[in-house]
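[recover] target loaded
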């Protein structure tokens, strides 16, 4: 029995829900799902896939999707609250000629 091959559609940039629908319509299924922190891409959007778009695979093959997630919060730096922790310049600076 010969299995029909299909080309993997491009789902990068799609939401996870839309990407899964596109894969199902092509006769493929979602495979392993990974997460990647991204500040450039909306959370929940696909940032990568494997196999790549255009690759010919067997019908019902799995496509690994990498989904963007919100980056972890940056560390908040606060101003010192105690006067002794602040540096004070007491000598005038000399000018260069």
């Amino acid at each position: 029995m010969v299995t029909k091959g299909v080309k993997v559609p491009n789902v990068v940039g799609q939401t996870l829900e839309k990407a899964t629908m596109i894969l199902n319509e092509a006769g493929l299924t979602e495979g392993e799902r990974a997460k990647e922190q991204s500040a450039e891409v909306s959370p929940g959007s696909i940032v990568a896939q494997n196999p790549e778009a255009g690759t010919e695979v067997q019908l019902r093959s799995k496509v690994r999707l990498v989904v963007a997630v919100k980056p972890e919060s940056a560390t908040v730096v606060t101003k010192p609250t105690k006067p002794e922790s602040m540096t004070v310049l007491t000598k005038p600076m000399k000018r260069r000629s």
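[recover] notes: Strands lie at 5-7, 29-37, 46-50, 56-58, 62-69.
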